[in-house]
């Protein structure tokens, strides 16, 4: 590769970065304006060709080309500089379309024998309304188009240098312009409605995906993470603890004599107790800890970056808060509650299944020893 090419490449890269490296909303506005710019270049080229061929006044066409080009460049600069990013529509589509309609009507007035090219361009301009305009704005722009063309047609008829034409021909042009405006507006409105519909469907779909995700990871009764989600969290936290060497604790919490509660007060009361227990424990643990419903009346608490001493203190607090907070039923009855806890500390190189097993054994020891207590697993 030549030295020139090596030097030129970063420069080209800088130019490309300058035009393309933008945030997504800004990039979308630049792309829309880029299309408008392309349309404008084609129109300028066609009218300049008409002027060279003697079909239109070259001086008027030159001024029109300069004015139109300047407006497109200003739009581009406003978007690229980020000056329009605070606006509701950073591409200020309605302003750009209004300006394009004006430019198109002026082209109609000055294009003399070449004015036949302007109505189809008007249709394309109206189509840009699909991007971000409200239906009311599209309709206002249609009315504005009719007025702009009406004024341009009147100018052509009244001012000789613009190349007056037979009234019948002027009426034909106006009729075609009106048809173009109505039809393109109707099509634009239809495309707009379809776009809105699709966006609505997309929103519904994202909500449904979010719901499915929620259902797949949450326990419906308590709102806590469910067993499947907890297994994933355990895997992630286990890897983190192994990598960082930070202490990781796991506790299994099991409500005592829960069957008796169900049998005495009914299944619905049992559900209320489970919800109340989940709330109580959630209120005791730190936001970094993860409490999940493991199944039935059994819960698992994962305490990340927690020393055995802090863990002991926390679990004892959970136990005493549960024991000191009877659950009030809607019937007026109160249920005294206790919880047995089996806890274990993650050992270096240990499998998660083994950690869970040790916590489970400690839980059974707590039950055997008379319930309502915290037992730590031995190594
Ligand atoms: N209300 C309600 N009960 C549940 C739910 N899931 C499991 N259970 C009940 O929880 C009870 C658990 O009973 P056991 O396994 O004998 O445990 P326990 O009575 O707490 O006895 P210990 O654990 O030995 O203290 C069973 O009666 C299950 O039917 C639930 O979602 N709602």
Automatic annotation (TrEMBL):
<feature type="transmembrane region" description="Helical">
    <location>
        <begin position="171"/>
        <end position="193"/>
    </location>
</feature>
<protein>
    <recommendedName>
        <fullName>diguanylate cyclase</fullName>
        <ecNumber>2.7.7.65</ecNumber>
    </recommendedName>
</protein>
<dbReference type="InterPro" id="IPR029787">
    <property type="entry name" value="Nucleotide_cyclase"/>
</dbReference>
<dbReference type="InterPro" id="IPR050469">
    <property type="entry name" value="Diguanylate_Cyclase"/>
</dbReference>
<dbReference type="InterPro" id="IPR043128">
    <property type="entry name" value="Rev_trsase/Diguanyl_cyclase"/>
</dbReference>
<dbReference type="Pfam" id="PF00990">
    <property type="entry name" value="GGDEF"/>
</dbReference>
<keyword id="KW-1133">Transmembrane helix</keyword>
<feature type="transmembrane region" description="Helical">
    <location>
        <begin position="35"/>
        <end position="55"/>
    </location>
</feature>
<dbReference type="InterPro" id="IPR000160">
    <property type="entry name" value="GGDEF_dom"/>
</dbReference>
<feature type="transmembrane region" description="Helical">
    <location>
        <begin position="140"/>
        <end position="159"/>
    </location>
</feature>
<feature type="domain" description="GGDEF">
    <location>
        <begin position="246"/>
        <end position="379"/>
    </location>
</feature>
<feature type="transmembrane region" description="Helical">
    <location>
        <begin position="61"/>
        <end position="79"/>
    </location>
</feature>
<feature type="transmembrane region" description="Helical">
    <location>
        <begin position="91"/>
        <end position="111"/>
    </location>
</feature>
<keyword id="KW-0548">Nucleotidyltransferase</keyword>
<dbReference type="GO" id="GO:0052621">
    <property type="term" value="F:diguanylate cyclase activity"/>
</dbReference>
<feature type="transmembrane region" description="Helical">
    <location>
        <begin position="117"/>
        <end position="133"/>
    </location>
</feature>
<keyword id="KW-0472">Membrane</keyword>
<keyword id="KW-0808">Transferase</keyword>
<keyword id="KW-0812">Transmembrane</keyword>
């Amino acid at each position: 590769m030549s030295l020139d090419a090596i030097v030129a490449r970063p420069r080209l890269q800088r130019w490309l970065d300058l035009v393309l490296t933008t945030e997504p909303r800004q990039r979308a506005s630049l792309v829309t304006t880029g299309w408008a710019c392309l349309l404008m270049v084609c129109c300028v080229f066609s009218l300049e060709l008409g002027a060279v061929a003697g079909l239109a006044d070259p001086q008027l066409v030159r001024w029109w080309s300069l004015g139109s080009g300047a407006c497109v460049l200003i739009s581009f600069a406003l978007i690229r500089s980020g000056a329009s990013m605070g606006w509701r529509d950073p591409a200020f589509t309605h302003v750009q379309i209004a300006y394009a309609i004006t430019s198109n009507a002026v082209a109609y007035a000055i294009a003399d024998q070449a004015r036949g090219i302007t109505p189809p361009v008007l249709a394309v301009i109206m189509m840009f309304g699909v991007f971000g305009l409200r239906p009311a704005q599209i309709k206002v722009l249609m009315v504005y188009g009719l007025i702009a063309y009406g004024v341009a047609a009147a100018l052509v008829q009244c001012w000789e240098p613009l190349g007056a034409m037979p009234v019948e021909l002027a009426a034909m042009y106006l009729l075609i312009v009106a048809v173009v405006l109505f039809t393109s507006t109707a099509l634009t409105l239809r495309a707009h409605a379809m776009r809105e519909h699709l966006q609505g469907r997309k929103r519904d779909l994202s909500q449904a995906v979010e719901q499915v995700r929620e259902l797949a990871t949450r326990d419906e009764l308590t709102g806590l993470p469910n067993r499947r989600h907890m297994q994933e969290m355990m895997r992630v936290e286990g890897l983190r603890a192994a990598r960082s060497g930070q202490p990781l604790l796991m506790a299994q919490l099991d409500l005592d004599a829960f069957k008796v509660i169900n049998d005495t007060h009914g299944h619905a009361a049992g559900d209320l107790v489970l919800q109340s227990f989940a709330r109580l424990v959630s209120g005791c643990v730190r936001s970094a800890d993860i409490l999940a419903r493991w199944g039935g009346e059994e819960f698992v608490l994962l305490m990340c970056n927690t020393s055995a001493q802090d863990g002991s203190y926390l679990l004892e607090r959970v136990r005493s808060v549960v024991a000191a907070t009877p659950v009030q039923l809607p019937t007026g009855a109160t249920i005294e509650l206790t919880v047995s806890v089996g806890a274990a500390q993650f050992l270096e190189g240990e499998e998660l299944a083994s950690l869970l097993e040790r916590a489970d054994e400690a839980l059974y020891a707590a039950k055997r020893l008379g319930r309502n207590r915290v037992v730590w697993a031995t190594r």
